[in-house]
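Worked example (supplementary).
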Amino acid sequence: MSKVLHTADLFSRLVKITPYCLLALLTIPVLGGLIGVMLPAFGWAPALNKTNMSLAGFNALWDTPGLSQMIGLSIRTGLISTLIAFALMIIMLAAFFNSVWLKRIEHLLSPTLVIPHAAAAIAVSFLIAPSGLFTRLFSPWLTGWQLAPEGSLPYDTFGWSIIIGLVLKELPFLLLIALGILAQPELGKKLRKQHQIAVNLGYYPMVAFFKVVLPNLYPLLRLPIFAVLAYASASVEMPLILGPNTPPTLAVAIMHWFNDVDLTLRIKASAGALLQLAITVGLLLIWLLLEKVIAIVFSQSLINGRRHYAHQLVRTFTYVFTCVILAFIAAALIGLVLWSVAGYWRFPDTLPSSLVLLHFENAFTHIHTPLFNTFVIGFVSTGFATILVLLCLEAEQITAKPLSKWAQIIIYLPLLVPSIAFLFGIVWLQQLLNSQHAFFNVIFVHLLFVLPYVFLSIADSYRRLDPRFARVAASLGASPWKVFFQVKLPQLFAPILIAMALGLAISFGQYLSTLLAGGGRIATITTEAVTLANGASRRTSAVYAILQMGLPLLGFILAWGLPRYVFNNKQL
Amino acid sequence: MCLLTAFSVFANDASNTVWQKIQNQGKNQSVYFYAWGGDAQINAYIQWAAQQVKAKYNINLVHVKLSDTSEAVSRVLAEKSANNHTQGSVDLIWINGANFAAMSKHGLLLKDWADKLPNFIYTNPENNPSVLFDFGLPTQGMEAPWGQASLTFYYDTLATSAPPQTLNELLSWSKANPGRFSYPKPPDFLGMSFLKYALVVLHQHSDAMLQAKLNQPVSDENTAQVLDSLWAFLNKLHPNLWRNGEYFMQSGVQMRRLIDDTELSIGFTFSAPEVPAAVKRYDLPKSIRSYAMQDGSLSNTHFVAIPYNASHAQSAQLVANFLLSPAAQAHKQKPAIWGDKTVLIQTSLTAEQQALFKAVKPHPSALPLNSIKRTLSEPHPSWVEAINTSWEARYGTSQ
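After joint prediction of all chains, the assembly is encoded as:
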């Protein structure tokens, strides 16, 4: 008996310290990484024989030709793409709320979540380019074009191509997050009922959504939106492949400076990374300000009793837009599949002249090691993240103290701070600690990006678990460890698997972090894909994109299928 | 020939014990070879080399595939800044030109080993200075030569029947075919190579004094003098480029993709065998043909180097020596393997070794044998930075 008590105490004590471990694990590397970038930005770089603090890096940065255009492009594309993705997500939710179509759209969009940004950008560029699928459909029979015409997309100076690419990637993410929130039993039920009541009171369904559901839903969406905004303003892959380059976005320019053979440019790059951080923070503040303005402007209309606003028009617009987006995504996927098996495919042919498996065969001869690395890193980082998150949530229940608002933000930290601003610093830190274990370093950095998503994915299910089960078990004499392991976890089987699948998908998709932390020694499917996208053909890139989509998809299929299988067996 | 043998015997005697030591200590280790990994053919060649050194020395050669060589440069720099002076992660690096200049300037490379490799003698360094200089900078034994490359052009025969043969013809061709030619944005290696080719050709008829400045470091006085003709040429060329010169491609591979898409009709590469390989892989149409410009082909040697803090410096030397061996060089030169020109001089080889290099009939889209009539040497590496900075200021912000 005393032994049981002892282990129970040990478990409770262990659980109670996990939140601190989690927060330390997230803050120390990110802040350390930022310091590792800040020092060279202010001129301290011993490797370059520079140990005097100065503003030379910033002066060089301000003197960069076209800096204001770079900043403008980053702000424009980040803000507009997030606004469009958010607006489309909201009207789609509103139009299809409580309808079977929402589920169908969710199923159609889910797979696009796992397409890596680089692959998505390549697919989009093939659609909108002058030699792309759309012009091929009309050439030469209508246009008479034997060679690809001149065009302005992609690479347009305003950044519309980047915006299209980002919207197509971020819209599914936001929509799935929102649906996840609505799937919470209590909240979802409450909102659906309130919506029904509003409809019964004569409000048009979309209006009811905006007046009743959205005000309750939005606060829960804020952090994911911030993550999207932060990502869009500082990402590298999309603008690199779709954007203009005279000049490019700031993040792309910073990456070029970091990679330049002129090593002293790294000081300017570090200064640029801090500027990027300021821009991202500025955009988040602008978004907060917009929230306030919108809240004030529309506060009256929530209670003015108006039951419809050009309802039919908005609904038609939503239907048309949903179809356009789904068609665009479908065309991009078809394009990827066609390229992966294409023989010669010269403009203006609509379809490849022959289909070959050569590109897949070539990929499979080189894929063993990267595949092994991808799995090991993915499973270790996801497994560790899941355990940590579960213990952390258990701590919340044992101490009956929910995580503070700050802690919530800290969990989001790796998603809010542009990775270009802290990853270079983390590598420097790892060097400083003389950490030679590339595998360990990569897993550690992956953990930073996997943790937030796993947390997001499990937290609500865990918090909404009926506490009476635990109380009954405890009153029957079960130790906290037993309650956690035998009562709570089995009930959470399905959400835990989904969270792990998401964690794996995030880990599989990491590029910059794998490359930097592993010193380039650790090849994964994604690092191979991006290296080859740089050096090989659209055909090879398509093969790798399909492989990259296949792996996480496998995880999700398992996550959906396994619980059914297990529970079916139990029922038998 | 007699003298040469005598010299090699002498050299062998002197360094025999040293090399013996390297051989003994370098066996049975791993070598992390940081090399650009964007070409399947080159990757396959490195895999072949890995099998060879595994059999020969039980060395585990790991190819770390880079998308840009400067990633490895930053790696070594980060290690130096963290005071990691002995346990570096990079053992061997494929390098030349500006990356070499940067690494050697910051003291990031191991010195005085390359010219002591037993196989170095086959490059006949006395009569072949290209293996001792990298873009005009003396290598000081920090780099072992690996191969030679020349700027090669290719075009789509269905889009144009008479491709330009000189830089001037390129200008008039672009005017007649607007939007069908462009070059990657500097500092991309290939884009910079095009600009250097133009610069050298534009000075072909300048007086000797001015021409000589191309081989000297950049100074405040000579910059404008040397570069003005380049800017004058580009000002005429740019309005006729693809996207009116308002967007530039990121890389040579993007250029290849645009030729496959028929957006461009003429491209160029520093790795001639890349073209037939791409046609075989369906990445370029069958209508592609390669050729060399008649006013000259920019040529350079590429090398392998060992960082100063490499964990396995001796094993890396064994690998570098193997890469220089007649067998490895001959295998690399085969068009079906890589097609990279050897750095060995045929007269320093035995008849048996020379036989390894016999030519095979090339692919229709490959550069015809002996089509390079005139090689142009690289200007001093400091010109890269000068061209890059002015280019960025002139054309980098077009809006």
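Two points are worth noting when inspecting this output. The two ends of chain A are 36 Å apart (CA to CA). Chain A touches chain B through 64 residues (CB under 8 Å).
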